[in-house]
Amino acid sequence: MSRASDYVTEFMRKQVAEAAGFQCEYCLIHEKDAYFGCEIDHVVSIKHGGSSVLQNLAYSCMICNLYKGSDLGSITETGKLIRFYNPRIDNWNEHFLIQGNAIIPVNEIGKVTARIFRFNEIERRMERDALQEIGLYPKRN
Ligand SMILES: [Zn+2]
């Protein structure tokens, strides 16, 4: 059930998008280059008690947000529960690096995030390739 306080105002959307530089805070694609655009993500989903405050909102492409869903993290190969990368408290460069057209996770938080968000699906890598070629996606971080 949704509460009135779950509502993200147009002003908040704008603030989040601007703070993110109009790019997905997870895979770094710019909203103009994202086929389905970007939207507001609740880092901690409302289902899990997150609310619509700036500290819990991130700018996400539709694809990252779709794969993330209401999840908060995942299980590693060794059975450990690890949270996802949180753009409000984490530094992207401490969890991932860009290598060619791939986003390489450098720790467990990066690994579960990259796997569940499917950062390196072939279609996404090809898209990054094309964007890198015309200077619209970073070649390294
Ligand atoms: Zn994304």
UniProtKB/TrEMBL annotation:
Database matches in InterPro entries: HNH (IPR002711), HNH_nuc (IPR003615), NA-targeting_endonuclease (IPR052892)
Chain ranges of the HNH nuclease domain: 11-66
UniProt keyword Transport, yes or no: no
Pfam family, one: HNH
Superkingdom of source: Bacteria
One GO molecular-function entry: nucleic acid binding
Assigned keywords, A-Z: Endonuclease, Hydrolase, Nuclease
Name listed for the protein in its UniProt record: HNH endonuclease
